[in-house]
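Design review, sub-item: ligand-bound model
Attendees: FS, YL, KQ
YL presented the inputs for the glutathione complex:
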Amino acid sequence: MAPYTLVIGNKAYSSWSLRPWLLLKQAHIPFAEVRIALYKDDHAAKIRRYSPAGKVPILIDKGTAIWESLAICEYLAERHADKQLWPADPAARAFGRAISAEMHAGFSAMRGELVMNVRHVLPRAGMSAEVTGDIARIEAIWNDSLRRYGGPFLLGAFSVADAMFAPVATRFRTYAVALSVSAQRYANSVLALPAMQEWYAAAAVEPEVLPQYEP
Ligand SMILES: N[C@@H](CCC(=O)N[C@@H](CS)C(=O)NCC(=O)O)C(=O)O
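KQ shared the predicted structure:
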C-alpha cells in the first residue's frame, strides 16, 4: 500500500492540487490519489471527511491529515530529506521559501482573472492593470531566480518552489501570456515535465465541465 494518500480536485481546474501532486511525482514518492469532483453534488462533505478546512489538496500520512499546499510540500521535503526538495544552502532555501510564500499568499488578481484551465488555449486580449502587475512580478521572480541559481529550475534543480509556480506556467500557456525569453524557457521546462503531461492527459478525459472555469 502506498504510504500517502493525496486528496485532490479536478485536474482541469484545481491549481492548488497540482502543486503537491507534481512534487510527489517529481520526487518519485509513491502515493494513492483520491479525486473529488469540485462543486458537484456533495463535494464539500466529501472533502470534510478528510479535513475540516474543507479545501483540497489534503495529504494523508497514516493518521495525520495535512492541508494547505505549501504545508504539504514542506512536510514532504522534511520527510524525504534525501530527495533534496529544498536546496542545502540556507540562503537559497530561504529565497525559495520566500518566493513560494509570495506565490501561496499573493497574486489574487491573476488567480481570479486567469483561472487555471489546462484543457484550453484562450489567448486573452485585454487584462486588468492588477493582473498585468501580478504577471510582471512573477516574471521578475522567475528571472531573478534563474539568474541567481543558473536554471533550469528556479533554484537550480527542481524544488518545492517549482511545484508552487507550476500552475502559473499552465495559466501563461492557456492565456498565451507573452513572456521574456528566459521566463518562457522556464515555463516550457515545467510544462514539458512528464508528470505535467500526465496531469494534462488526465484532465483532458475528465467528464466534468464547470462553467465558472470555462470561457
Ligand atoms: N490555500 C489553499 C487553497 C486550497 C483551495 O482553495 N482549494 C480549492 C480547489 S483549487 C477547493 O478546495 N475548493 C473547494 C471549495 O472551496 O469548496 C492551499 O494552498 O491548499
